[in-house]
UniProtKB/TrEMBL annotation:
Pfam families: DUF924. InterPro entries: DUF924, TPR-like_helical_dom_sf. It comes from Microvirga terrae. The lineage of its organism: Bacteria, Pseudomonadati, Pseudomonadota, Alphaproteobacteria, Hyphomicrobiales. Gene3D superfamilies: Tetratricopeptide repeat domain, TPR-like. This is DUF924 domain-containing protein. Coiled coil: none annotated.
């Protein structure tokens, strides 16, 4: 493991492929790796970084846009893989939202050049439950709409899927005020309406990629 002063190992691990000139199949493959647990088998080596970040030992990373992005990834993405099914998966969420909001205010978000850098930067706003969650989800939908508008034509299906996920999460928070699928993990009582939702099992974060994505990936696989 690299020194705790170096965020680059996190960046190189999370963004291993240059997608700037890649075809749509490569984008779908990378999205599947990110969002469907492809990184989980390797995350154990980053567990010390998660502990260090939670202890404030990586706060120096906040001084640059990419360093802040990597700190967000360590606190937002890595715990969800390392501690899946346990309350610890969500315990960094409040701090990660503060970290992201600070970067929105100081220009770090605007300084990011890759749409995927920006995507993982703003995800904590969607992930963290709280009294302002619906307003944050409203912002995520607006950012996702802009990302779709700005995407090259051949990549619009990727960003349309991202927007559909954002809108679906907005609907969940508007309806319940929280993510009901976390209730069993966090020991929360589910309302009758939430129990009906949970019984269906149609959770936004586990939805399959569209058929066009599977076809594109299979064609190059």
């Amino acid at each position: 493991m690299a020194s705790h002063t170096d965020w680059r190992e996190v960046y190189d691990f999370w963004f291993p492929v240059d997608l700037s000139e890649a075809d749509v199949a490569a984008h779908w493959q990378m999205l599947a790796w990110w969002m469907r647990g492809g990184a989980n088998a390797e995350l154990h080596r980053f567990a010390p970084l998660v502990r260090a970040a939670r202890a404030g030992e990586l706060d120096r990373w906040r001084s640059t846009p990419l360093g802040r992005l990597c700190l967000i990834i360590v606190l937002d993405q890595f715990p969800r893989g390392l501690f899946a099914g346990a309350p610890d998966a969500y315990s960094s969420d409040p701090e990660t939202v503060r970290l992201a909001e600070e970067g929105f205010d100081n220009g770090h978000y605007d300084a990011l050049t890759s749409p995927y850098e920006r995507f993982f930067y703003f995800l904590p706003l969607a992930h963290a439950e709280g009294p302002d969650h619906l307003e944050r989800m409203r912002r995520i939908v607006a950012i996702s709409e802009q990302a779709l508008d700005e995407a090259p034509e051949h990549l619009k299906p990727v960003w349309q899927f991202s927007l559909s996920q954002a809108r679906a999460n907005f609907d969940i928070i508007a309806r319940f005020g929280r993510f009901p699928h976390r209730n069993p993990v966090l020991g929360r009582h589910s309302t009758p309406e939430e129990l009906t939702y949970l019984a269906k099992g149609d959770f936004v974060h586990t939805r399959s990629l569209p058929a066009s994505a599977s076809s594109a990936i299979s064609a190059v696989g």
